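User: Good morning. I'm curious how uridine-diphosphate-N-acetylglucosamine would be positioned relative to this chain. Could you predict the structure with it bound?
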Amino acid sequence: MDSLIVNSGRPLAGEITVQGSKNSSLPILAATVLVGGVCQIHNCPDLTDTQAAIAILRHLGCKVKTGKNTVTVDSSDVSCYNIPDSLMREMRSSIVFLGSVLGRTGKAELSAPGGCEIGLRPIDLHLSSLRVMGCRIEEDYGHIRCERVKENRTSVISLSFPSVGATENIILAAALSKGRTVIHNAAREPEIYDLVAFLNECGCKISFRMQGTVVIEGVKKLHGCRYSVMADRIVALTYMTGAAVAGGDITLHGVNTNHFRTVIPVFEAAGCCVEDRKSLLRIRSDKRLRAVRDIRTMPYPGFPTDAQAPVMAMLSVAEGTSVIIENIFESRFKHVSELSRMGAKIKIEGKIALIDGVRELYGTSVTASDLRGGAALVVAGLAAKGSTVIENISHIDRGYEKIEDCFKILGADIKRVN
Ligand code: UD1
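Assistant: Good morning! Here's the predicted structure, ligand included:
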């Protein structure tokens, strides 16, 4: 098993192009199942989660070729509609194949993903929405059998919470249906827009109406296309927190700066200088950070829950008391015990974290508990005196394409050891 060793003391400087988004690539790869032709997906990050998605595509009968950040999927011969438990378990987001397999074959059989490191993660909204769309669903012992038994002329779904995964599954299941599907209170994350842009390139008719309403007019047939996945806004944010704690001046290329509107003020309040121009973000940090009160994680365009852990690592060395309220996932504070081992002073009260900034953290051996919690430990390592050894980094590899190489380009002292 690999570990990361991070040594602090060097300010970050330089420029990198941010990798493609994991949370866009996974639903887009799943969406290729609907196409029945050849799609070339560019800027697809090389991650263990994307490899898991490719394994599912091959199981379903797709021919998949991979090149440098390009995945070519030929889904002409998809015939299979069940996904074995072993493939489903590789990643939680495999649930997004429910909508695409159902959309292509009219039925789908797979296992429910179950809880994970950051919470229970139920799929009740996915299933109730598919029922509204005319599907019969049977569930037993975590196994789901879903079949479209009715073709509605119109299905109207109002989500009680704008779930990202449920919105994606509804869109995928509706794209090739015979009628029109309307989703109210749909998720508005940029990754949803990316998925829809890809599907529309393939011939879908999906539009965003008033805030939070998506209309999907089912079409008969799709065609292949070439598509480039958007940059990963959470990965970009992680590098921003790294520069904030280590000090320095870094520039991130390839991003959509509109995705950062609610997070830039947090960095500015902490004392960093952020410049955004077209597809470029520059962040400078040259003094001790200041505490930031009242960060609340919310569905987009609110502050993203995925940025909570790296930002907490950043604020653990900011002067004063910061407050973060985690509103999306119930167990998303697992990184706190590891940050505390490094000397952070963080108190958790329910969904509230009170971070009493310390002047310095101390390097020690810590364990990544989940993807973003693991990235937070890398950020903390950049702020800690001495060496930080991070174990269990397979979590980090699920979402960051060689995190050590990118930080090294920016001048950090970080290496991977076996
Ligand atoms: C996606 C992202 C994840 C991000 C999250 C919130 C991917 C691969 N993952 O996860 O990185 O942190 O959005 O921005 O894109 N819920 C229910 N019932 C449901 C579905 C969700 O109660 O049927 C709850 C969940 O338990 C959670 C909240 O809704 O508390 C948000 O979940 P959701 O938006 O669905 O997140 P994911 O799609 O799982």
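Residues 156 and 182 are 5 Å apart (CA to CA). Residues 23, 26, 93, 119-126, 161, 163-166, 187, 191, 305-306, 328-329 surround uridine-diphosphate-N-acetylglucosamine (CB under 6 Å).
Let me know if you'd like a different ligand tried.
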